[in-house]
Amino acid sequence: MKTNRIRLYKFVIMALFLITWEAAAKFGPFSEMLFPGLATIGRRFWGLLLEEALLFKTLYSIAVVWLAMLLSLAAVVVLLTLSRASLFVKTAVDLIRAFAAPVPGVAILPLVILWFGLSRTSMLLIMIHATLWPLWTQLSLAVDRLSQRFSRFERAYRLSHWKRFWHLYCLGAAEDLKSALGVAWSRGWRALISVEMIFGITGSQSGLGWLLYERRMYMDTAGLYAGLAAIALCGILFETWIFRPEKAGEVT
Amino acid sequence: MTTIAMPKRMIEIKHLKKSFGREVIFEDLNLEVYENEILVIMGSSGAGKSTLLNVIGQLEPYDSGEIHYHPALFEGTKVPLPFVFQEFDTLLPWKTVEGNIRLVAKDLSEGDLQAVLDTVALSDHRYKKPSALSGGMKQRVGIARALVCHSKILLMDEPFGSLDRDMRLKMQDFLLDLQSRTGLTIVLVTHDLEEAEKLGTRIVNL
């Protein structure tokens, strides 16, 4: 019942927003160049899809974030395995995380460019930086929690390394992994758009960030809004649907 | 001449000492666990009951003394000293009853699984997850998990401590019945005198 009301409210709010936008575009004091109407933005969105490979650029950006997340996840699995074996490794990674996690990806961009130039390697490094720490933070907490809970059980029943790894820790941390990937996605997606806008200056890369930069260069405001809409839609798609946390009743 | 068969000593503890840092938990502790008995270890909170059980179960080292295990304990099992824990959250909530039991016994046959489920009266709940079970049922899954290891002893750390009174009484009856049917040796830790008197063949106070 409450969910239905929330859905209705969301629909009404969106409708009000769109009506206000259209009214402001039609009757407001703004130039069409700065504040295009919804129909213009919609047409431009469609045009970009057909002519400017908006879909390809979106998929490219998504693929880069996923690649970075998979590489980061592999690194986190290795680091967690090592940190279970050695307190020194765990302390070292936690210390590095404390320093590195608060630094936004864009902030280390100058340093990465100095070392690796404007290359795919640089972009991937920044993306790994953006996605690695959220994954480490959440998954190491999950492993600590599971370890504390099952420590006596796994030793008393002499579970093999594989059973511990897969049945206790991988399956036990599945929900945490989903939520950690959600946070990593969110940070990675934001970092990527910023980085693409900067890397796009060289014209050597593709992606939604570069599309935005390009549209601004051509004073294509409707195209700019269409690009922003594509970014927002991707964010909603992943954060609301793919990495949606389980509701209380759904956890079994 | 009549010979009286002496019960087998499954575990023999001599002059055992255990401390955490400077705090001595127990010292010069001597204890025997005999075959087919329910030995109840009692004591107030912090007396070292669970620590002693962990030491017996080889989960914690001890400082000095000796513990001798009868070789029969290690025959035909990879888990000679299985535990039933107080906290039934040591069941894996993402696995079914069957999954939790199979986790500790790699090559468990269908027949053996069915037999152990019948023993703990959980045949109808085989495909349920722990969240769908009552406290008593969860504890019976923990017992089933220990039974499939085919060991000759069960180490139980306040197994019914988290249950309400009615369920606790039912589980005590269930345990007595199980022990009489299987002849298992059981070492059980509790702080409840009533429970100790009902279950224990012998009671040791720490």
What can you tell me about this protein's structure?
The complex is a heterodimer of chains A (252) and B (206). Chain A has 252 residues and is mostly helical. Chain A has 2 domains: 1-30; 42-246, MetI-like (MetI-like fold, Orthogonal Bundle). Helices cover 80% and strands 0% of the residues of chain A. Chain A is built from 10 helices and no strands. The longest helix of chain A has 37 residues, at 120-156. Chain A is globular and about 75 Å long. The two termini of chain A are 23 Å apart. The model of chain A is unreliable at 248-252 (pLDDT under 50). In chain B, a hairpin with a 2-residue loop joins strand 1 (9-20) and strand 2 (23-34). Chain B has 6 helices and 8 strands; from the N terminus they run E-E-E-H-E-E-H-H-H-E-H-E-H-E. Helices cover 31% and strands 25% of the residues of chain B. The N and C termini of chain B lie far apart (39 Å). By secondary structure, chain B is of the alpha/beta class. Chain B has one domain: Rossmann fold. In chain B, helix 2 (97-104) runs parallel beside helix 4. In chain B, the strands form 2 sheets. In chain B, strands 5-6-7-3-8 form a 5-stranded parallel β-sheet, with helices on both faces. Chain B has helices at 49-56, 97-104, 110-119, 135-147, 165-182, 193-199, and strands at residues 9-20, 23-34, 38-42, 64-69, 83-84, 153-157, 185-189, 202-205. The chains are: A mainly alpha (252), B alpha/beta (206). The interface between A and B is medium-sized, with 17 and 23 residues.
